Amino acid sequence: MKPHHWLVGGVVALLAAAPLLLGNFAVSLLNDIGIGAFVALGLVLLTGVGGATSFGQAAFVGIAAYGTAWLTTTQHLSPWLGLLFALALTGVAALAIGLLTLRLGGHYLPLSTIAWGLSIALLFGNVEALGSHTGLSNIPPLALGSWSLADPRSIYMLIWGLLGLACWFSHNLLRSRPGRAIRGLRGGATLLASVGADAFRVRLTLFVMAALLAGVAGWLYAHMNRFVSPSPFDVRASIEYLLMAVAGGLGQLSGALVGSALVIVLKNGLQDVLPWLSQRGSQLQGVAFAVLFILLLHHARGGLMGFVSRWTRGRFAPIADDAPLGTTLPLPQPLPRRAQPAPGQPVLAVRRALKRFGGLAAVNDVSFDVRAGEIVGLIGPNGAGKSTMFNLLTGTLPMTSGRVEFLGHDISGWAQPRIARLGMARTFQHVKLRPHMSLLDNVALGAHARGGAGVVAAGLRLDRREEAQILAEARRQLARIGLTERAHELAGSLPLGTQRILEIARALAADPVLLVLDEPAAGLRRKEKQALGELLRKLRGEGVTILIVEHDMDFVMKLVDRLVVMTFGAKLVEGTPAAVRADPRVQAAYLGSAVEPVAAAEVLA
Amino acid sequence: MTWDVALILGIDGLANGAVYLLAGLGLVLIFSVTRVVFVPFGDVAAFAALSLAAFEAGRTPATIGLVLTLAALAVLVETWRLFRQGEIRRLPRALLGWGVLPALPCLAAWLISGHAAPAALRVAVAVALAVPITPLVARVALQPIADASVLVLLIVSLALHFLLSGLGLLFFGPEGSRTGPLATGSLTLPGGFPLSAQVMLMIGSAVVLSAMFFLLFERTVAGKALRATAVNRIGARLVGIRPARTALLAYTLASLLAGLIGVLVAPVMTMYYDSGFLIGLKAFVAAIIGGLVSYPLTAIGALAVGGVESFASFWSGALKDVIVFSLLIPVLMLRSFMARHAEEEAEEIDR
Predict the structure, then answer these.
(1) d(CA B193, CA B190)
(2) Contact B209, B257 (CB under 8 A)
(3) Comparing C-alpha atoms, which of A306, A310, A291 is closest to residue A247?
(4) Other CB atoms closer than 10 Å to residue A360's CB: what's the count?
(5) What residue spans of A453-568 are helical by DSSP H?
(6) What is the C-alpha separation between B302 and B25, in angstroms, rounded?
(7) Residues A115-141 pLDDT 10s
C-alpha cells in the first residue's frame, strides 16, 4: 500500500461511515455535494483535461431531470426506467450538440455553449408538457424492491456509491489508451492525428461522457428533491458548476469532489451569515459567489487541489501504476508488429505534387521516391517549400494536384489519422509533447493506433492486457533512446534536445514503416546532434525508412543516403550527398550564382 | 400573416434592431480593444433605465450608491497597486481619476433628484450616472488580468454579470418600472400605419450614434488609437499607445452607449434589475455575426436579430428567445468555418 492508497481508503471509509455519524442536515448537505460532484467531475474531464469549456452543463442536468420526471409522473413508469431514459436523452442531446459545435475553433466553442445552455433552459420554462415555469412535482422516490430510498440516509448510499464508481471509472480512463488521447487533446488536433487518433471524435466522446455524468446528477436530483423547475438548470447554475470545478482544481479528478464540497458548504454558510449583514442577505449570495469566482481566476486558477498537488510534488515519490523500475516484470506478449517492406522496395512515391496558396505555388510539380531502408534528406534554402511538402505528405494540408503513394496506396486526400495508421509517423518542428504527462505516457501515446481499447473497456479496466503491452512497448522505446530512468518524470522538465528525441521515441512507438522528421536538429547542441545522428543511423540499421527535412547541412550530409534539393517550390536536383554537394545549381541556390564553385563546395562541406 | 401584420412586425423589429445595434457596437468596441466579451453590458443599460425611473418617481436613484461602491473599490485596488509598485506619490491623481471623477455624476444626480428637473436634464444625468460603471468594474475585475486568455476573460465577464445583477437586486430591489415616453406623438405612414415617435427616436438615435461612431474612428486620434489596438496590440504599444488607456476609453464609450440604450428602452419595456441581460445577449448574437470585430456586419446582424425576434414573437411569444439564441449556433458554425484557425493549443483556464 502506498500513501495515496491509504488516503483514498481513508476518504472512502469516512464517507461510508458518514450517515452513521452525522445528523440529517449534514447528510442532506453531503447528498447535494455528491450530486454537484458528478457535474463537476464531467467538467474536470471536459474542461480541465480536454480543454473544452462548457457554460451549459446545467442544461444536461436539466434534460435528465426533466426526462425522468416526465416519464415517472405522466407515464407512471419506474424511476429505473427513468434512469435509462434520462441517460439516453442526455446522450442523444449531447451527441447532437457536439456534432454541431465541437468543430468550432478558438473562443467560438465556449460561446456556443452559452447559446445552447440558454436555449435549453428557456425551453424548460416554456413547454406546456413540462409544467412551464412551475415545473413538475410529485416525482416518485427511488426504491430498490420494497426498500424506499426516500430518506436522505438511504439515497446517500446510492449517490456516493455511484459517484465512487464514476470516479473510479474516470481514474481508470485517464490511465489508458483512450485516456492518453483525451489528455493529448490540448496539444492540438495535429498531434493526435499524427498518432492516428481523430481529435474531433475524442472530444465528442469526452463531451458525451461529461454530459452523461451531468445526466446521472439530474436523475438523482429529480428523485431526491421529487420536484423539478427550470431555475436550477439555467446558465447561472452552469456557472456555479464551473465554479466548483475551478475552485476544486481543474487539473485533478479530486478537484471535482473538493470543489463541490467547497461551493455547497460555502453556499450554506452564506445562507446563515448573510442575513446578519443585510436584510436582502439571501440576494447577496450570488454577489459573494461572483466575487469568489473572480478572485479565484485572478489569483488561483489551479484551484485548491492545484495547491495541494504542487505541495505534494517532490515530497512523495511519483506515483507509478506498475511495478517499480528495475524489477523484472513477467513481460507481456509484445504488440504485433507491422510487416516491413524488403530493403529497396518503394515506400513513398511523390508524383507531380502541386500546392498553391492563392497565386503562389509553394510546391510546384515535385516528384521523388523513398525506398525501404534508406534515409532521404529533403533540403533547400529558406522558403523553398520543404515544410509545405512535408505537410502534403502527412496529410496536414490538402494537395492542389498531383499524387502521393505510400506503400502502394494512393494517399492523396486521405485524412491525417488514416495515413498515420498506415505506417507513417512524424515529429514536429515545434515540439508537440504534452508537458504535464510523463515521458512514458507521451511515448505510449505514439502507440495509440496499435491498440483498440475503447472508453468503456478502459474505464472498467478490461483493457489491462493491451495496456501492459502498450506500456511495455513505450518502455522499450524509452530504453532505445536511453531515458528509462526518467520514465515517470514530466516531459515538460526535459531540455529541448531531449524533447526532440522523445518525439522520435513517440513516433517509433507506432511501429512505423516511414519515419518523417521535421527539422529534428533545430535548436540542438553539438553533443545532442551527435546523439541524434547515432540514433537515426541505428534505426536505419534496424530497417526503418526515414525522410528528414533539415536545415543543418553538416548534420544531413553525414547522415543521409540520398538528398532531394528544393528551391522556390520546385525540385532542383536529387542524388547522393557528394553529387549534390558538387552540383553547381545547388551552390547557386544556396549562395548565389556568382560564387566560385570551389569556395561554395568548401562551405557546404 | 397579412402584409399589415408583417409591416407592424417589421417596424417593431427595426426598433429592436436599433437597440441591439447600439449594444452590439459597444460589445464589438470592447472586444476588439480588450478581447473581453463584455456580458454585463446590458446590466449597465438596465441601471440607466432604473435611474431615470427613479428620477421620474421623485426618488434618489440607487445607482448613486452602486457607483460610489464601485469607485471605492477601484480606489482601493489602485492604491494597493501604487503602494506595491512604490509609486504612492501618484496617489492624488488616482484618487481624482477613480474616486472624484465618478462621484461627479452622483453629485449631479443627488442635486436634481426630488426636484422637478426638466426631462432632458433627467435623461442626461441618468446616462451620465451609467458612464462610470463599466470603467470602474473593468478597473477592479478585468484590468489586473488583461493579459489572460480570452476564455478566462469570458468567465470573469460572466461572473461580473452575476455580480452586477446581484448588486442591482440589492440596490434597486425586485420591482420593475417603466418611464414616461421620451417623445410623444406619431407619424402616419402612407397606407395609414402609425409610426410612434418613440420608435422613430430609437431608430434615429441608432443612425446618428453609428454615424458619430464612424466619425470618431475615422477622424480622431483617439479613434485611431482604438483601431490600432484592435488590429495589433503589440504594434500599438510599440508606437506609444498605452493599452490600459485605450481600454479605459473603450469601456467608457461602451458605458455611454449602454446608458443611452437604457434611457431609450425604458419607456417601451418594463425594466427590472436583470432585464439588461437579455438585451445584452441578443446584441451579443449580433456582435458574433460581426465576428466580434466588424462594425458594419454587427449592424446588419443587429437588424437581423431584431427582425427574427419580432417575427418569432408572432409565431410563439414564449419561444422567441429560444429561437434567437439557437440562431447563434449556425452563426458560430459559419463564423468558425470562415475563420482560418492556425493550429493552436487549446485555451486553458488553469495554466
Answers:
(1) 7
(2) yes
(3) A306
(4) 10
(5) 455-459, 464-480, 496-509, 526-541, 553-559
(6) 9
(7) 899 899 989 988 888 888 888 988 999
How many domains, chain B?
A: 1
Q: Is A316 on the interface with B (CB under 8 A)?
A: no
Buried b (16+ CB within 10 A) or exposed e, A36-53: bbbbbbbbbbbbbbbbbb
Q: A3-312 and A346-423+512-604 share one CATH topology?
A: no
d(CA B314, CA B1): 9
Per-residue pLDDT tens over the stretch B255-314: 999 999 999 998 888 888 888 888 988 898 899 888 888 888 899 999 999 999 998 888
Strands (E), A314-400: 346-357, 360-371, 375-379
For residue A188, give how far its alpha carbon lies from the nearest alpha carbon of chain B (Å).
5
User: B280 with B257: CB under 8 angstroms?
Assistant: no
| A84 in reach of chain B (CB within 8 A) | no
Q: A428 at the B interface (CB within 8 A)?
A: no
Give the structural domain span for B275: 3-174+187-338
Give me the pLDDT at residue A159, please: 95
B69 in any annotated domain = yes
Identify the CA nearest to B135 among candidates B33, B237, B234, B235. B33
Interchain pair B341, A115: CB under 8 A: no
Alpha-carbon distance values, B24 to B29, B213, B289, B292 (Å): 8, 12, 10, 9
CA distance A119 to A123: 6
* C-alpha cell of residue B89: 506619490
Listed residue (B41, B32, B25) closest to B279, CA to CA = B41
Q: Which helix (H) or strand (E) holds A407?
A: none
Q: Where are the domains of chain A?
A: 3-312, 346-423+512-604
Amino acid at B350: D
DSSP B174: S
pTM comes to 0.89
How many alpha carbons lie under 13 Å from residue A77 in its C-beta half-sphere? 13
A44 to chain B, any CB pair closer than 8 A? The answer is no
A3-312 placed in CATH 1.20.120 = no
Give a three-class secondary structure readout of A171-234. Answer: HHHHCCHHHHHHHHHHHCHHHHHHCCCCHHHHHHHHHHHHHHHHHHHHHHHHHHHCEECCHHHC
3-state helix vs strand vs coil in chain A, percent to 5: 60, 10, 30
- Split at pLDDT 50, 70, 90, the class of A602 is low
Q: What stretch of H or E contains A565?
A: strand A562-567
Q: Does B150 touch chain A (CB under 8 A)?
A: yes
Domain membership of residue B157 (yes or no) is yes
How far is the CA of B72 from the CAs of A293, B63, B81, B93, in angstroms? 20, 14, 14, 15
Work out the mean pLDDT of chain B and round it to a whole number.
86
Query: Touching check for A196 and chain B: CB below 8 Å?
Result: no
Q: Which of residues 157-186 of A touch B (CB under 8 A)?
A: 185-186
Partner residue facing B170 (CB), from A119, A283, A290: A283
- Counting every residue written for chain B, the total comes to 351
Which residues of chain B does A114 touch, with a Cβ-Cβ cutoff of 8 Å?
A: 158
- CATH architecture classification, A346-423+512-604: 3-Layer(aba) Sandwich (3.40)
Q: Does B334 touch chain A (CB under 8 A)?
A: no
How many residue pairs from chains A and B have C-beta atoms closer than 8 A?
A: 154
Rounded-to-integer distance, Cα B186 and Cα A137, Å: 49
Q: Do B336 and A106 touch (CB under 8 A)?
A: yes
CB contact under 8 A, B341 and A278: no
Q: How many CA atoms lie within 13 A of B26 on its CB side?
A: 36
Are the C-beta atoms of residues B343 and A105 closer than 8 Å to each other?
Answer: no
